[in-house]
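Good morning N.,

You mentioned wanting to compare the apo and holo forms, so I went ahead and generated the holo version with adenosine-5'-diphosphate. This is what I fed in:
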Amino acid sequence: MSKELIRLSNCTMAFDGEVVLNNIELSINDKEFLTLLGPSGCGKTTTLRIIGGFQKPTVGDVFFDGVRINDVPPHKRSVNTVFQKYALFTHLDVFENIAFGLQMLKPAISKEEISSRVMEMLEIVSLKGFERREVSSLSGGQQQRVAIARALVLRPKVLLLDEPLGALDLRLRKDMQNELKRIQQTMDITFIYVTHDQEEALAMSDTVVVMDGGVIQQIGTPEDIYNEPKNAFVADFIGESNIVDGIMKRDGVVEIFGRSFKCLDGGFAPDEPVDVVIRPEDVDIVEVGEGMLTGTVTNITFKGMQYDIIVDFRGFKWLIQTTDLSPVGARIGIKIDPDGIHIMKKSHYSGMFGDYSSYSAEYDDIGDASIEAEEEPEDDL
Ligand SMILES: Nc1ncnc2c1ncn2[C@@H]1O[C@H](COP(=O)(O)OP(=O)(O)O)[C@@H](O)[C@H]1O
Ligand SMILES: [Mg+2]
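and this is what came out, ligand included:
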């Protein structure tokens, strides 16, 4: 998985002068499951279309195995695409749908080889025994499997998948996520997957590319992206995050709400303003006197595994996940371990995300529930 297969170098795409992809630098390894993740309109499909050869970048180069392929048409690239709309041939059965591309091959291959390759694919996508079924008699998930088999039977080195599970219901999506991962591993090829669903991206990918506004915000493993988000956009888009202003006092010490907290980050200028991410599951609830901060519970939602509670600290509302029930109105203390505090550089996303005020109906009534700013917390430095 370590060998580079595809590279987008300095790729910019503009439509009628409007830049929709801005200076994309992306390296994709052979046999990698890479996901382009971001909100609608961020440029995922355009990036995929550039890789597939359906679009030429306005500026920049596309390389495949080290060879520049900007001018190579789609059918001459070792790349195939599965779309959200399956576009199966409804007048053909499952076998004929999958065989179609093979029958078009030049030079032609034998009927026996076509048959054995179609049957092999049916096995891989778990549709053995379905070869003579009408595609219209299949469920959405089964039709999507046929579409995947039809693309894979041509043995591309890379499969491009543009929100292929978007039309399926949640349960089926989860099943198909596992299936796709298994199929990718069985075929031992590169999958480049597009989704706006962060859970899907984290569940399936070796590498996640987070995009916004035509710009790559971060590239990393699912763990990297979740644990070490680069900026407030990534922190907010991947999972739930409380994002507050902080001041980096020195390596390993950040000031939040006028209090010093230990953290693991360093390398910032002295007193550099930063964004601080605290995940809801990393906050421990303790007795008021024992906490690093004190707040007031303003809202509770039972989530099965845990309660989501909204806690007001000086009018700034945090989401905290806890298995202990703290009633609305309760004063609670909180503790955060150093590895639960993640420091990010300020960016143009600062201040836009990570405040849960709108979650709480009582927001206007509570007003300024204060922290005990005069009290020094025990863990203070
Ligand atoms: N052929 C096109 N002509 C003009 N604008 C386009 C074209 N294709 C995409 N766009 C614009 O480029 C932006 C990115 O689109 P797209 O790559 O489809 O985003 P995503 O797949 O992330 O939702 C959008 O603002 C979209 O309207
Ligand atoms: Mg799209």
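The radius of gyration is 25 Å.

Happy to go through it together on a call whenever suits you.

Best,
F.
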